[in-house]
Amino acid sequence: MADTVVVEKRKVALVTGITGQDGSYLAELLINKGYEVHGIIRRSSSFNTGRIQHLYADPRSHREGSMHLHYGDLTDSTCLVKIVSQVRPTEVYNLGAQSHVKVSFELAEYTANVDAVGTLRLLDALRTCGLSETVKFYQASTSEMFGKVQEIPQKETTPFYPRSPYGCAKVYGYWIVVNYREAYNMFACNGILFNHESPRRGETFVTRKITRAVAKITLEQQKFIELGNLDAKRDWGHAKDYVEAMWLMLQQEVPEDYVIATNESHSVREFVEAAFKCVDITVTWEGEGVNEVGKNKATGEVIVKVNPKFYRPTEVEFLLGDSTKAKEKIGWKPVYDFQNLVREMVEADIALMRANPVA
Ligand code: NDP
Ligand code: GDR
């Protein structure tokens, strides 16, 4: 009888933005699934690998070589071509971005360079290296592309109306991915992800800003928090659930675009209330607009103030996603609900601030 040779399929992932919130959860997921994971990191004057530090400590990922980091940048085509030609990935996850909507008004050109042209550069590096017919490509598209409400809830067919330089750049990223799929037969997908959070969320996004403040106020390290638009509504999920959706999209036979959301929307004000509830503080609201304050019902102390500094020139008022397509076609649904998400973030920040009050 002839010997059967089993050829293991190469599972090599290249992740841009591996040092970010999603990159860190995705790297964990891929390593657990047996991938060799290559991440692109930026040179920085201080450590920017805090979120993936634990993967070094794990001998499986570090010493046994499941994780490799390469210096690079989405604004630098040369390095992208070099990294792609060395790594020859089977899957690419393009998560790298200037991802802060408010900052994008200050850094509009840079945001377009990284988030829009950066996506083009990476897609083209794959073509240059002859991988366009074999690689699977995930693009981190966003609910910010829907922007000004055209339809509720928002799904794959809802028209885009971005409201920030970030949203505009991501619309370019979305369409260049569709174009490369159609023009060059690439397996390329857009995940249109609604807001997703976690204890690893960047400190200047509203959820993490709130849970950090709740922790500090509880531990008497801070008196109050200043916020912008309390009425904006978002469909908030957990990053751990959302990276699973990214991977699932690339395991399908046919490349398609999917909305990923919880199908539940809450205002910033509701997030504040839910976060303080975790430490048994009830918030009561007084005043209007810039004069609105939130008080601790039990003590009467002001714990929330509105500061117009945090308003945006144009705002996305209301986002609510419909992820029926993802549920039906790729079998994705979230594990976390809103209350679990808020509680996990508040508890993590209390533990963090207790251990390190200057964090
Ligand atoms: P983060 O801001 O936490 O992470 C962004 C990552 O991109 C970081 O690793 C950052 O590196 C890297 N990066 C920034 N600029 C460049 C550049 N010029 N070249 C290469 N890498 C760069 O974002 P998230 O993890 O929250 O989001 C991941 C992706 O998903 C982003 O593209 C974001 O726009 C998109 N998205 C996020 C959603 C969310 O709710 N979180 C929802 C929908 C889409 P460094 O650590 O050095 O700064
Ligand atoms: P967003 O997230 O803009 O939706 O983009 P962010 O948490 O920054 O804002 C959510 C809403 O909260 C309002 N808000 C404040 N926001 C911040 N950051 N700071 C404040 O003090 C504050 N007060 C009120 C905002 O006006 C907004 O309406 C995130 C990013 O992760 C993007 O990269 C991603 O594409 C989208 O989510 C989906």
What's the alpha carbon Rg, rounded to whole Å? 21 Å
Instruction: Trace the largest sheet across and list its strands.
Output: 3-2-1-4-5-6-11
Element-by-element helix/strand order: EHEHEHEHHEHEEHEEEHEEHEEEHH
CATH hierarchy, class of the largest domain: Alpha Beta
Low-confidence stretches: none
CATH topology of the largest domain: Rossmann fold
- Describe the main β-sheet briefly: 7 strands, parallel
Question: Number of helical segments?
Answer: 11
InterPro entries: GDP_Man_deHydtase, NAD(P)-bd_dom, NAD(P)-bd_dom_sf
Keywords: Lyase, NADP
Domain NAD(P)-binding: 14-345
Catalytic activity: GDP-alpha-D-mannose = GDP-4-dehydro-alpha-D-rhamnose + H2O
Describe this entry's structure for a reader.
Helix content is 38%, strand content 17%. The chain is an alpha/beta fold and 359 residues long. The protein has two domains: 12-199 and 236-264 and 317-336, Rossmann fold (3-Layer(aba) Sandwich); 206-230 and 268-315 and 346-355, UDP-galactose 4-epimerase, domain 1 (Alpha-Beta Complex). The strands form four sheets. It has a seven-stranded parallel β-sheet, sandwiched between helices. Helix 1 (21-32) crosses helix 8, helix 5 packs parallel to helix 6 (165-184) and helix 7 (206-218) packs parallel to helix 9. NADPH dihydro-nicotinamide-adenine-dinucleotide phosphate is lined by residues 16-17, 19-23, 40, 42, 44, 48, 73-75, 95-99, 114, 140, 142, 193, 195-196, 202.
Topology:
Blueprint: E1 12-16, H1 21-32, E2 36-41, H2 53-57, E3 67-71, H3 77-87, E4 91-94, H4 101-106, H5 108-128, E5 136-142, H6 165-184, E6 187-193, E7 196-197, H7 206-218, E8 225-227, E9 233-234, E10 237-238, H8 239-250, E11 258-260, E12 266-267, H9 268-277, E13 283-286, E14 293-296, E15 302-306, H10 324-330, H11 338-355
Parallel strand pairs: 1-2, 1-4, 2-3, 4-5, 5-6, 6-11, 7-10, 8-15
Antiparallel strand pairs: 9-12, 13-14, 14-15
Helix pairs in contact: 1-8, 3-5, 5-6, 7-9, 7-11
NADPH dihydro-nicotinamide-adenine-dinucleotide phosphate is lined by residues 16-17, 19-23, 40, 42, 44, 48, 73-75, 95-99, 114, 140, 142, 193, 195-196, 202.
Protein name: GDP-mannose 4,6 dehydratase
InterPro entries: GDP_Man_deHydtase (IPR006368), NAD(P)-bd_dom (IPR016040), NAD(P)-bd_dom_sf (IPR036291)
Keywords: Lyase, NADP
